[in-house]
Specification:
Largest sheet: 2 strands, antiparallel
Strand content: under 5%
Distance between the termini: 67 Å
CATH architecture: Up-down Bundle
Number of domains: 1
Strand order of the largest sheet: 1-2
Structural class: mainly alpha
Number of strands: 2
CATH superfamily: Cytochrome c oxidase-like, subunit I domain
Shape: globular
Mean pLDDT: 88
Low-confidence stretches: 533-538
CATH class: Mainly Alpha
Length: 538
């Protein structure tokens, strides 16, 4: 245990020093160089893009941005379309698989939620008990929806960002097959009662090699495409996506080493993994996607390119130690937990950098949300990142953790981050990417509106209600004068609000997936426009 704590402390010291050195090196960049670096993602700087909207919506969006200077980049519309086609098969293999797991995980989550205030419901079959159905929900959403949606967007973004057709797409398709197989077998084992016994690591170890192999096969085309890139500068989104692809297999392999982690050390490694899979895989993919989508839709570069790089390196340097704050009050040396608490507070640095950068980018453009479905999802996701991360900084404090730990408030916080932040940005990326890849429009734009409002309102009901209930629960639990049962009973109304909000989110997912299936099979009204580069075609 001592050597792990010393390693954490040394890593934290080097993290602080490294960030200062990096900020100092950025001072050598001139404003002109920074502007050029920020413009590499555009086909035409000043030309908006909104594949998820109608032609009239895109026209209104362009009219709102008329003050932007428009000048073309070297890539043509036909070349960009060819890049999208190069990633079509692996992108769709991962994406529609992710949608299937989203439906399975959402329904399982709703059943688990209902069981909290209907405890006698569906108890005859052991496979439907809370412990198994909730674990099904977690793994289907974490490794099915989240991981596969992230890999799908990475496979689509890499060719665009590197201006190079995806190399070795067949490896990614094979990776999707192995990932599906490993996840299906692992979740089936969990439902039947075979469980790894550690949160986020419930899939039994015999099946984890399939996930490792699937992830490795996806990494091959991404690395090969990066090596053969046709650009001199790597846009910040490439940094985030590349880091996620490198970090995740390392985390997963270390956490699943058999016969290595025992006792308290196993708990430390468990939360090192459980927190870092969010910070070093989910977060960089979503942040990198936001850094592409928001400027791309608006047709204007990110406000400060250097600030985006500061945010990346601050995330890379500080997040690794933050997971220890989940063990506040546990059998660890006090100074080890303190390192985790301080690292969690330091995570305010990349979050503030992200908030300032996108706030300045959106300055004077908030009305554009009215015209862009993609932008609505992406901006809500960006706000969710800032809100959930700042909340996490405060929750790491010992005084706050004493009240909120082991309550429903931690569940609300987890959904605030993984749903409001990550999933909303994934929805934005999917609405933008799928029309480009399939080269046809979303058939029913109103379904996108329904998806947004059902998910947004459902999320608000879920997170706000469960947060209030969790805080009240924690205050009752730390009051020795109040019986434990009181802390349970007072949460019932808030658990019911959780189920209402969760039900709305499940309905939104059904609308989303049904719409995506209609698009895939080319059903419904036929629209041509933004997805086919209608301006260039005309």
């Amino acid at each position: 245990m001592t050597y792990i704590g010393v390693l954490l402390a040394i890593t934290f010291v080097f993290s602080v020093a490294g960030l200062f050195v990096f900020v100092w090196t950025l001072s050598s960049k001139t404003p002109a160089e920074q502007q050029h670096d920020a413009e590499v993602i555009f086909q035409d700087v000043g030309q908006v893009e909104e594949p998820a909207g109608t032609t009239s919506q895109e026209a209104a969006l362009q009219a709102h941005m008329t003050h932007s200077d428009t000048h073309p980049s070297p890539i043509s519309a036909a070349e960009l379309a060819a890049l999208d086609r190069s990633s079509r098969v692996p992108f769709l293999a991962f994406l529609y698989g992710a949608m299937g797991w989203l439906i399975i995980g959402s329904i399982a989550g709703l059943i688990a939620s209902l069981k909290l205030h209907f405890p006698d419901w569906l108890v005859e079959q052991p496979e439907l008990t809370f412990g198994r159905i909730r674990t099904l929900h977690l793994n289907a959403v974490a490794y099915g929806w989240s991981a596969m949606a992230a890999l799908a967007l990475a496979l689509w973004l890499f060719p665009r960002l590197l201006r190079t057709p995806l190399v070795g797409a067949r490896f990614a398709v094979a990776g999707a097959a192995f990932w599906h197989m490993g996840l299906f077998l692992g979740i089936t084992a969990v439902v039947l009662g075979w469980n790894g016994g550690m949160e986020w690591l419930e899939i039994p170890k015999p099946f984890t090699p399939l996930l490792v192999l699937g992830g490795a096969l996806v990494g091959i085309p991404l690395v090969m495409t990066l090596v053969r890139r046709q650009v001199d500068h790597l846009y910040v989104s490439v940094w985030y996506l590349s880091a996620a692809v490198i970090w995740f297999p390392i985390l997963y392999l270390i956490a699943n080493l058999p016969g290595v982690h025992f006792g308290v050390q196993a708990a430390l490694v468990n939360w090192w993994y459980g927190h870092n899979v969010l910070g070093y895989f989910v977060t960089p993919v979503a942040v990198g996607t936001a850094y592409y989508l928001i400027p791309k839709v608006l047709g204007t570069p990110i406000a400060s390119y250097n600030l985006s790089l500061v945010g990346f390196w601050a995330l890379a340097l500080f997040y690794g130690q933050a997971g220890v704050h989940h063990l506040v009050g546990g059998p660890l040396p006090t100074w080890v937990v303190t390192v985790g608490v301080v690292a969690s507070i330091m995570m305010a640095v990349p979050v503030i950098a992200f908030a300032v950068n996108h706030g300045l980018t959106m300055k004077n453009h908030w009305r554009a949300l009215k015209h862009s479905p993609t932008l609505r999802f992406a901006v809500v996701g960006a706000v969710g990142y800032v809100g959930s991360s700042i909340e996490g900084c405060f929750e790491a404090l010992r005084s706050v953790s004493t009240v909120m730990h082991f309550t429903h408030a931690t569940v609300a916080h987890a959904h605030f981050g993984l749903y409001t932040f990550f999933s909303f940005i994934m929805f934005a990326g999917i609405y933008f990417a799928v029309p480009r890849v399939l080269e046809r429009e979303w058939p029913y734009p109103k379904l996108i509106v329904w998806h947004f409002w059902l998910a947004f309102v459902g999320m608000l009901i879920y997170v706000i209600g469960l947060s209030i209930g969790g805080v009240l629960q924690g205050m009752a639990m730390v009051d020795e004068k109040r019986p434990f049962m009181e802390s349970m009973l007072l949460t019932i109304p808030y658990l019911q609000s959780r189920s209402i909000g969760g039900g709305m989110m499940v309905l939104s997912h059904l609308v989303f997936v049904a719409h995506a299936v209609l698009l895939a099979f080319n059903r419904g009204p036929q629209r041509t426009g933004p997805a086919l580069f209608h301006k260039a075609a005309a």
